[in-house]
Specification:
The structure is a homodimer. Chain A is of the alpha+beta class and about 425 residues long. In chain A, about 25% of the residues lie in helices and about 20% in strands. Chain A has one domain. Chains A and B meet through helix 4, strand 4, strand 5, helix 6 and helix 7 of A and helix 4, strand 4, strand 5, helix 6 and helix 7 of B.
Chain lengths: ~425, ~425
Amino acid sequence: MREPDAFRLSRRQLLASSALASLGVVGALEVGSPSPAGAAVGTGGNGVVDFYGTHQAGIVTAAQDHLVFATFDVASRSRSALSTTLDAWSQAAARMASGEQIPGDASPAYPPADTGEALDAGPGRLSVTFGVGPTLFSRPAVSGTAAPVSLADLPAFDGDQLDPTRSGGDVCIQACADDAQVAFHAVHNLARLGQGVLALRALQVGFGRTSSTTTAQETKRNLLGFKDGTDNLLAGDTAEIAQFVWVDDEREPHWMVGGTYLVARRIRARLELWAATPLGGQEAAVGRFKRSGAPLGGRHEHDPVDLSATGAHGLPLIPDGAHIRVASPLANAGQRLLRRGYGFADGVDPVSGELDAGLFFICFQKDPALQFTAIQRRLATNDALHGYLVHTSSGVYACPRGLSPGEGWGQVVLG
Amino acid sequence: MREPDAFRLSRRQLLASSALASLGVVGALEVGSPSPAGAAVGTGGNGVVDFYGTHQAGIVTAAQDHLVFATFDVASRSRSALSTTLDAWSQAAARMASGEQIPGDASPAYPPADTGEALDAGPGRLSVTFGVGPTLFSRPAVSGTAAPVSLADLPAFDGDQLDPTRSGGDVCIQACADDAQVAFHAVHNLARLGQGVLALRALQVGFGRTSSTTTAQETKRNLLGFKDGTDNLLAGDTAEIAQFVWVDDEREPHWMVGGTYLVARRIRARLELWAATPLGGQEAAVGRFKRSGAPLGGRHEHDPVDLSATGAHGLPLIPDGAHIRVASPLANAGQRLLRRGYGFADGVDPVSGELDAGLFFICFQKDPALQFTAIQRRLATNDALHGYLVHTSSGVYACPRGLSPGEGWGQVVLG
């Protein structure tokens, strides 16, 4: 006996989402009710993040609670195969963001079109963000396509211990959702759609979002126990987002105008060493109080950071090497980043016996050389936190502008 | 300037929890409102799971959404050091389950007593479950203490590809919570308290709970896309829980009466092979319809499984090798398990290039030899799913009875 309604839930879910939207519920969630820490209200009703738009979702979208970040390498020499696959990816991403399944024949004689593990989970505020790495443009399948102007491998930084298999990649997918399984499902299905054309290179699960991206979200703590991202750029900072995030350079390929650059760094934290550091030392390294997140010398998290304030003996309250001083726009020609970081815990380091855990750092910017690279150069040299951190992966990717319905990433990037 | 209220939130959080309890809110959540998929209602108000009781928490407790499972080896020859550390662990676990911090000096001159990453997260329905492995009893620090009667290494099963570093361990900690960071925080702080005495051996993050443990929880899907645990033992099946889960054998050490045995298996799923299998083949391998979870021949998930039903040509509707037939109590002398499984995704297998993802399987039982081992022997030989699964870790642990306030795991197990 076959099930009469096999694989039809997707439409019901879509209708449910639409119904929520018509009630104004989805919009409210999307703008970012104070980070719902995975707050499903009822079954699977986490809301829908629009896939289509001027910019890609997952950048200024209120940061979801879970991340699956994956990279892929082109495994085909065929331009049309790659283009078709990337178009299929964007269509699939749009469907999954709506809580729909990958469509296909539901006959028992064929493999299911969708792997199915998110079938009852709802849209989960899924966003799927796509980027292309520098190596893509040396692939035969991409021959003749101009690379984005600011897309170049990051330089080596002092202290880097990069795992090449975790780094780089011809393309990346950042899947964020309030349900970890929804984020995994998205990457799983894109990997499957890419078989033979885009080979999975690396995959990283992240939990416990740190940086907020809207004022409605409270600041969360990273695995060092500190509030992280207090001074992040926020979706509502329209002028700053235009200034620091969205590409508007006419020398860029047309598909990068409205796009941005994503930098990803897997940053292992030496948690045992950190935990053995006195509270005062931790706070001096960060430049903030651990409990409140207030800048040293302040009382409340969002008190302005006064880098010139001095205390006893005329010493600066925020020490010279404090992270927030070295990373400050004031120390970096005014440059800022839009951050979207997640914690990770991948087990035990076989050599040291220490936790292999830390922060999977993602940031978005208009120009990686002027923004991430310039800031990270200073951090790698001067930041008191640097001795507690080991960067174990690195990647930079150009994220195209957002798509309109009917457009696909293959068509837009490969023409 | 010091913060006047540094590290005092813990008490406020405790008061908040008590306030919720007095409103009857905590109880309602704990019995298991339909799995809240991490449903924080407001900030950090996920409820408290009682740490103290006849049995340990985290066994029949309504399955939380996230898992961190860790194993440790004894690194000291001192019985008193081990006993003191285990007592400190249970006290810390009780505090963290209440949403409190590890207590200690909040002076800037000392390392913080708590690592702090869950400071604002609330209790998150955290449960911390403790078990001891067979190897513990050959450690000098444990000399003279009798091992539980049914605690013995699991035999090798056909197809096992066990990673020894992920397997075994002198003790285990299962931390479950509706907030992944709360679960990580618990293991992180226990690891820190154990330094020099209990060395971290392995750590596994799991997301996307599969098996429900209460009737109020809907069945979730595993990464194969199937509802998992439809026929699980449930907290409300009091007679079956007494029959299959809680140890009541008078030959056992007194601390095992009211305890249980935990088996953990990291089961990698060959997701690429599975995704290439026709829907009918997947359903035949499981014995259930993918969409509804109904047994083949049935219409609804909870329809009774009729192993004798036949279809065309007199063939069984549930094939000979179907997972639910081979794992059925009818095929296993009536034996059953209490399951608590989670999905995992640890990246890409460096050899095959395939996803290193699957199910971190945990089950509880009165007697591993009669229950998990007997059933797994049949599954490893006859289960049609077996060809899609690779067991990459294995562990068996005796979980003591629950503690009363004032008791500790060291005192109870080591005397």
